[in-house]
Amino acid sequence: MANAGKMLSSTIRLFQGISRFLLVPAMLLMMPGAPAGATTLDDCIRAALKMNPGLEAAAHRVDAARAAHLQARAPWYPHLVASGDYTRTDNPAQAFMMKLNQERLDMADPGFDPTDPGSTQNMRLSLGARYLLFDWGRSRLNEQMAKQGIEMSSQSQRARRNELVYEVTRGYYNALKADAFTRVYRETAESIEKSLELARERFSEGAVLKTDVLNLEVQHARAEEDLLQAENAYRLALAALNTSIGAEIVGPGRLTPPRDDPPPFAAEPNADETVDNRPELQAAASLARTKRLETSHARRSNLPRVTAFGSVDMDSRVSDHFEESYTAGVKAEWALFDGFARSGAVSEAKARRREAVAELKNTRKTLLLDLRAAQLEAANAFHRLEVTRKALDSAAESLRMTRTQYENGVVEITALLSAQAAKTESSVRNRAAWYDYRIALANIDRAAGKQ
Are 161 and 451 in contact (CB under 8 A)? Predict the structure, then answer.
């Protein structure tokens, strides 16, 4: 039966491990209305919340804090201890007490010799109890500090979740941005190839010089090199996204780009109100409360401690019946002098409390700066998006006009190459601004604790 139980337990753990890695990909494939292999931002975030090892570790820290709180509540319950021992001795004092507890000591026996009791054996079974009656609230303070430990670990888990959602969002848009760059460079290479074919035709007709063909061939080779670098950057971006998620669930061509334009930049929120949602700030406040409780605990560390105790004991020779006895009482302990250890502990606790309060203020200032930087970054990205959109329209029209002029022999090849380079650069800048603005909006949500 034991072996069967172990096999069943191993099978369950194996199934849980397999389902952990297969559940999310299977869920993504079975989503109604989604194209085969398509992965949206929400899919990536849901997968990361289930599979990211960092978030899993944060959840275990919360469980550990709850277990610590359970330990801190132990003084509120009676402590029971059961014990048993067998002793054999010829020591006069111990033998005397053994026989006395066994109620077989006969001092009137002519053969009684307290200095030579012979070999004596005793089996003792004991059940003891201890209960704390009063300790000036130190146990209650320990429990309250353990509750603050749960709060701090929970806020740390929220902070990790907040960062993870932004990390996945940023990785998702960075991968799409890298894919967009790949498309731009591929279109550029194709456009230069068409211009190269035209130049070769015109060269064969004697309408242009050989240098036009050579210049276009050089530009085509550079465009191919840029395309290779963009494709490699795309693969790296996908690897970074999968690392953030915690599993290899996203492959090339599977990300679904957003179809609508990003929302316009809204008015800046009130930083003093918004930053209070950050779990880092709440964790720092919880730490300050913990340090205040530790100061109170240190002040009460040398005050009296009153404990009730009792036990039921049974003594017997191995072959006889047991003789019962009991012990009960109340114990008070008060350390009158400890070499100034208590005063040192109080001073240390006060310093730690002041440190935590200062860290709380510093955390608020840091988070306010983080939020302000995120707002400025979003405003900058929004303006960049407007500028690059206009520049892209102008560059596309300039390229169209220059190509027509080159076909008609009005301009030289250098003008066409410059127009093509301007179009490529404008396309890259526009795509970068488009995705950077989306990332900046997500960064505002992270800085405000809204993820």
Answer: yes
Residue type for 78, please? P
> Are 183 and 260 contained in the same domain?
yes
Q: Letter for the amino acid at 143?
A: E
| Strand-strand pairing, 79-89 and 305-316 | unpaired
Give the residue among 305, 303, 294 at the shortest CA–CA distance from 345. 294
For residue 126, the enclosing domain spans 79-134+305-333
Report if pTM > 0.85.
Answer: no
33, burial (CB in 10 Å: exposed 0-12, middle 13-18, buried 19+): exposed
> What residue has token string 């076909």?
407
170: exposed, middle or buried (C-beta count within 10 Å: 0-12, 13-18, 19+)? buried
**Residues 304, 136: contact at Cβ < 8 Å?**
yes
Distant-in-sequence, close-in-space partners of 176: CB < 8 Å, separation ≥ 6: 255, 257, 435
Cα(222)–Cα(229) distance, integer angstroms: 11
Any domain includes 413: yes
Residue 319 sits in the same domain as residue 435: no
Distances (CA, A) of 184 to 135, 421, 429, 436: 74, 11, 10, 17
DSSP states of 323-385? EEEEEEEEEEE--S--TTHHHHHHHHHHHHHHHHHHHHHHHHHHHHHHHHHHHHHHHHHHHHH
For residue 292, the SS3 value is helix
Please choose, from the candidates 445, 449, 412, 434, the residue with its C-alpha nearest in 3D space to the C-alpha of residue 180: 434
> What digits encode the pLDDT tens for the residues 222-274?
889 989 999 999 999 999 999 999 988 888 888 888 876 767 666 555 545 57
Query: To which residue do tokens 């000591």 refer?
Result: 105
Let me know how many helices (H) and strands (E) the chain has, helices first: 10, 4
pLDDT in tens, 285-300: 999 999 999 999 898 8
One-letter amino acid for residue 238 of the chain: L
Assign residue 40 the CATH number of its domain: 1.20.1600.10
Question: What is the spatial distance between Cα 182 and Cα 176, in angstroms, rounded to a whole number?
Answer: 10
